[in-house]
């Protein structure tokens, strides 16, 4: 019996979008992930882009709304979308908020009960799922990572905490400084406890201050994004940390764009081409 | 007070996706429609593509999932997506089926009570809404039409019943012969009554047999589409009617593709370029 079970397979731009169910040991639950395999994957192993999604999302949102398959097919790039939190459990309050618990794993390893029974999304997206997909799909081992909002935060911390692992990292409207915004304070406080020192290893600004980065950062942010205006995202704090640590950071404020997938779709091609060039 | 009320405005590929609410006299209810205005619309009037969606859809599905804005922006093409049925009423059984009543207007003018109080989607998409959008947006009067499934049927009958109105017509997996498939028999019987002769003016195959067409037809159909396999779509009947009537029909069976928006997204650029060329 295979350790992954096909949920659906849909032809898309000559390649295949497939969804699989599997038992996650790390998360202690069943999970679904999505993979887009470009036409080139039928000929030879291909590089992989990880996409981490934002609050309330599943593996499906990006694949349905970002319009990424067209250019991924052209570039011969596979894309994996993990889900955004453990599923199927029913911890106290787990389903009460859009910004904590189900759909809001924040890509950290929780230390606080009861969350530490399941909420270890960092280990899931950096260890368990990479091993699983490399065992099952024609991937050539080269990886890049990107994401949106909570998933942009996830992409940044995964890259910063694993030097040499990813050839490139980018993010759309990431939560750059979770230790200093309401979303992050709620999530990190809940999953990691009240000692804010312990939050630093999950905050891209703090990671850059502590260790710098050899990897340049590419960040797009819409200036009409209400979460940006409300101080949830703080890209200026990231740019300042990069400046201080001499980390190359391209922060593009995109005039008129909001926080939606229409913003992502408008610029995803540029990110895909950026990653594809580094993945060569 | 304006006769349309802005619901949302989202920047997309340099242009704007806007949703508006308005009172429909024809449908006797409030309706929402979506319009994508490409960047060129800020400089001069632009041509318009009508997109008619399928069963269960609203004005939102195509705009979120088809990935059409990128090429529409490049080509300077506006797109209007009407909703697929009247909304806000509560007729007996109206919300019980996915393939009849709400979300399933079938782009006909109902003659049977109680449906004839509201279900006049043909007049809505060919008269009332065109007058409204031409009054409010920078459109140059040139129009094309396309759609998916029930909306592919809608696009075909709108074009066939209005020679000279549209410069071009295309469809994805259209219900080509509603008088001869379960979906169509249920819908046409319910909205128009049991006299099948009266269904002919709403069936693209019958319209072509009766009157031919100067307009060539472009139809894409996935060969792994379960509704095609089940006989709901019948593109071969359309091709045969066109052959008999010497109407140019390009029917492309796309191997491996299903009925989803991933299929539409895979080929929408070709349809947009096809329409843009005719709209020049």
From TrEMBL, chains A, B:
<keyword id="KW-0719">Serine esterase</keyword>
<protein>
    <recommendedName>
        <fullName>S-formylglutathione hydrolase</fullName>
        <ecNumber>3.1.2.12</ecNumber>
    </recommendedName>
</protein>
<feature type="active site" description="Charge relay system">
    <location>
        <position position="149"/>
    </location>
</feature>
<comment type="similarity">
    <text>Belongs to the esterase D family.</text>
</comment>
<dbReference type="InterPro" id="IPR014186">
    <property type="entry name" value="S-formylglutathione_hydrol"/>
</dbReference>
<keyword id="KW-0378">Hydrolase</keyword>
<dbReference type="GO" id="GO:0046294">
    <property type="term" value="P:formaldehyde catabolic process"/>
</dbReference>
<feature type="active site" description="Charge relay system">
    <location>
        <position position="259"/>
    </location>
</feature>
<dbReference type="GO" id="GO:0052689">
    <property type="term" value="F:carboxylic ester hydrolase activity"/>
</dbReference>
<dbReference type="InterPro" id="IPR000801">
    <property type="entry name" value="Esterase-like"/>
</dbReference>
<dbReference type="Pfam" id="PF00756">
    <property type="entry name" value="Esterase"/>
</dbReference>
<dbReference type="GO" id="GO:0005829">
    <property type="term" value="C:cytosol"/>
</dbReference>
<comment type="function">
    <text>Serine hydrolase involved in the detoxification of formaldehyde.</text>
</comment>
<dbReference type="InterPro" id="IPR029058">
    <property type="entry name" value="AB_hydrolase_fold"/>
</dbReference>
<feature type="active site" description="Charge relay system">
    <location>
        <position position="225"/>
    </location>
</feature>
<dbReference type="GO" id="GO:0018738">
    <property type="term" value="F:S-formylglutathione hydrolase activity"/>
</dbReference>
């Amino acid at each position: 019996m295979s350790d992954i079970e096909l949920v659906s397979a849909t032809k898309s731009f000559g390649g295949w979008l497939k969804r699989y169910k599997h038992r996650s040991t790390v998360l202690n639950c069943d999970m679904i992930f999505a993979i887009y395999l470009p036409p080139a994957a039928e000929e030879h192993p291909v590089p992989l882009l990880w996409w981490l999604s934002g609050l309330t999302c599943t593996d499906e949102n990006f694949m349905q709304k970002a319009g990424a398959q067209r250019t991924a097919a052209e570039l011969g790039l596979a894309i994996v979308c993990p889900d955004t939190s453990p599923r199927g459990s029913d911890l106290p309050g787990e389903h009460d908020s859009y910004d904590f618990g189900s759909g809001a794993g924040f890509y950290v390893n929780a230390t606080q009960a009861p969350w530490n029974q399941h909420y270890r999304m960092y280990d899931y997206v950096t260890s368990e799922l990479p091993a699983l997909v490399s065992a099952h799909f024609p991937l050539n081992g080269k990886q890049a990572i990107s994401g949106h909002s909570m998933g942009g935060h996830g992409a940044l911390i995964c890259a910063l905490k694993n030097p040499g692992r990813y050839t490139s990292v980018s993010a759309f409207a990431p939560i750059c400084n979770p230790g200093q915004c309401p979303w992050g304070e709620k999530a990190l406080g809940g999953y990691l406890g009240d000692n804010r020192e312990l939050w630093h290893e999950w905050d891209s600004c703090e990671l850059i201050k502590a260790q710098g980065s050899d990897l340049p950062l590419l960040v797009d942010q819409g200036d009409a994004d209400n979460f940006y205006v409300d101080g949830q995202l703080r890209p200026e704090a990231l740019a300042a940390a990069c400046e201080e640590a001499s980390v190359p950071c391209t922060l593009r404020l995109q005039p008129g764009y909001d926080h939606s997938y229409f913003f992502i779709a408008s610029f995803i091609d540029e990110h895909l081409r950026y990653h594809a060039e580094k993945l060569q």
